[in-house]
Design a protein that fits this description.
The chain is an alpha+beta fold and 440 residues long. It is 32% helix and 28% strand. It contains 13 helices and 23 strands. Strand 22 (417-421) and strand 23 form a beta hairpin. Helix 2 crosses helix 6 (167-187), helix 2 (44-63) crosses helix 9 and helix 10 runs parallel beside helix 13. The longest helix has 21 residues, at 167-187. The radius of gyration is 24 Å and the shape is globular. The mean pLDDT is 96. Bound molecules: adenosine-5'-triphosphate and magnesium ion (MG) (3 copies). Residues 209, 284, 287 line the site of one magnesium ion. Adenosine-5'-triphosphate is lined by residues 109, 140, 142, 151-152, 155, 157, 200, 284-287, 319, 321, 323-324. It is found in: Cytoplasm. Its EC number is 6.1.1.15.
Amino acid sequence: MRLSRYFLPVLKETPAEAQIVSHRLMLRAGMIKQASAGIYSWLPLGYRVLRRIEQIVHEEQQRAGHVPMLMPTLQSAELWQESGRYDAYGPEMLRIKDRHERDLLYGPTNEELITDIFRSYVGSYKQLPLTLYHIQWKFRDEIRPRFGVMRGREFLMKDGYNFDLTREDALHAYNRHLVSYLRTYERMGLQAIPMRAESGPIGGDDTHEFLVLAETGESEVFYDSEITELKFGDREIDYDSVEQCQSVLEEFTSRYARTDDTHEEAVFEERVPEERRRRARGIEVGQIFYFGTKYSEPMGATVQGPDGKPVPVHMGSHGIGVSRLLGAIIEASHDDNGIIWPEGVTPFHCGIVNLKQGDAEADGACEKLEAALMAKGLEPLYDDRDERAGAKFATMDLIGLPWRITVGPRGLKNGVVELTSRRTGESEELTPEAAVERVA
Ligand code: ATP
Ligand code: MG
Ligand code: MG
Ligand code: MG
């Protein structure tokens, strides 16, 4: 991509309305524009990161055997009356009437809709286990939308739903989700800690939230510091193996880690030695629930069991805050000059800065570099604008690409370009070919 032809409306001034660093940086880097309170347009740079995060979520869900689909944003009120949540959900639900005076709502979550799909087509236990998921916009009329995409009213969520014959099978699905979430967040360069939580309006008795530690987080958290040393890493896991998933769950949830809703000071003090007790703040980037037959019973989602008798299916639901993740990643990874994207989610793999635009040799070298990077399947952003070097560097630092290759006539005389790591700030001189190898 050539910057001269791209749309990157970078702001010089720090927007006064933004209270936290991720919101400020997303506005300054031209990633989002507020359309109305808690509702955002995703400008090209922000959209690229959103798509990369979605892609990781898709890959990890499918690796765990979950099946992608897409449900609509607008739902009929009838299904919610059946489950009993239409009245219970309260003012966070955006209710709409169509021209025929029929009640609709903009889905805040999808348990009812998916349960209706399930009961329409699945009649036998032989079709289980089944986990369906989608990535779709949600609307919750939050009382205080704030912090940019962190607490929007319209936001993108991955929500998945498991259907199982027994409680044991559904708990395996729960564990499978926990494992897949650990992998998902790590691929985004994040440490998200599963913490015992409260179920809220989704309901149910087993639930964990995933929290990214950050001072600006809205949740208060209490945990054993040992937990921050755990890494999922690149271990191979068989998602069908009950034992393997169970053992990962035990490893990651046996130490004390709770949000303020479930925190018990006495238990904390008893179980965690004082020097390991941490009280901090966190951003909720996902949550998994097991809720048994809470929806399948009232909505009649039953299957014929092995003995021929109908049984309501055991279910759970599992959410990842896809759009919130952009804010969480930036909160966890930035410096005074801007964003520092983890490689897994960066909007472009590498920036190319031409120090002397219009100089035939420099222009030619940049174009060759661009082509060589693309031939490796990478997406470079070439700053080909006629701008001062300082302004080009500031833009690259702000938008946070992991690598910058700087090309100028002086280096080219010696056959080298400069490769700079955004994270460490360290530069080295290399031949263009060696620089491409390093970035790839
Ligand atoms: P919160 O406690 O922050 O209000 P929640 O517990 O109500 O979130 P869930 O129903 O668990 O949210 O939804 C799954 C995920 O969707 C959350 O873990 C979070 O990452 C994301 N999410 C929820 N509400 C919002 C929002 N208003 N804006 C952006 N992301 C959100
Ligand atoms: Mg909420
Ligand atoms: Mg919550
Ligand atoms: Mg939640």
